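Hey L., structure's done. Input below.
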Amino acid sequence: MPKLKTKSGAKKRFNLTSKGKVRAGQAGKQHGMIKRTNKQIRNQRGTTVLCDADARIVKKFLPYG
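Output:
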């Protein structure tokens, strides 16, 4: 069998935890911070673990992750 290629866009945006969950950056943090509340900005720091439905889709693009 040939090797599977990882989607290069996915490897830049997602990584897997040791238990196999998918970790991603928080959505809604690129621009427009003036409109957001301080609470929202604070809660969107760092990364988050994707829900199971989204993680299943992302894992197709990371075959050896």
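Residues 2 and 33 are 46 Å apart (CA to CA). The radius of gyration is 15 Å.

-- N.
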